């Protein structure tokens, strides 16, 4: 995607997961690259997770946490630690680093300005070959997005940095999977590009062979690769979030290697980087 008309600044929404945050030097490089895109004239929004940090905080507090189908079962007690970690630690750190690089970053979560309204997730999982309902506690799905506040910030040259928590209409808070949160927000913002940062170069037909990197793929063809088992594991929620983003209004989605910040900086105008997904 190129910056053709400087008057209509394209929106890039980045999903930045906790796995690519553990190395401080790399984190700074990633933020430098995202900041450079902002300085080039793109509107930039960052949605972040922080799974490994939540895990550490819960371990230290001796609170058990279990993942069921990629969702962290979240008791009321665990939710306090989720919020403390995402908002108090990860979000404030990203904002400080971006500000230190000369940007004006604003830390938010789904609750702020009711950007995201959540609803309690009704979850079913396979137990002994049968689908059974399980209560995941305060795990939420995105019910609605109000992107107004984000547009306001972008128009004023701020970089919104958003934690993936949200509340329902009555104010009960929920822990939302970061990929799903980001996909919904990218869709509601009609982002020009939804960029998922991972630790591999993109989607590969054979995950152990980088020469099988898929550069461009239509969403329907991608779903076939998921259905036939070619793509598995941690990539699936990322693909699901790209599907949500594209179905809700994002123009294109891309999965790239966030651990190669040099690539990240070049994504504008270079469609050979990562896997580009089109509807
Ligand atoms: C996630 C939210 C954080 C997240 C969790 O508690 O880990 C649920 O699982 P990453 O680093 O992007 O994976 N929420 C419900 O998604 O972090």
From TrEMBL:
This is Acetylglutamate kinase. InterPro entries: AceGlu_kinase-like_sf, AcgluKinase_fam, ArgB, Asp/Glu/Uridylate_kinase, Glu/AcGlu_kinase. PANTHER family: N-ACETYLGLUTAMATE SYNTHASE, N-ACETYLGLUTAMATE SYNTHASE, MITOCHONDRIAL. Pathway: Amino-acid biosynthesis; L-arginine biosynthesis; N(2)-acetyl-L-ornithine from L-glutamate: step 2/4. One of its GO terms (cellular component) is cytoplasm. One of its GO terms (biological process) is L-arginine biosynthetic process via ornithine. The gene is argB. It is found in: Cytoplasm. It comes from Salinivirga cyanobacteriivorans. The record marks 15, 238 as: Transition state stabilizer. It comes from the Bacteria.
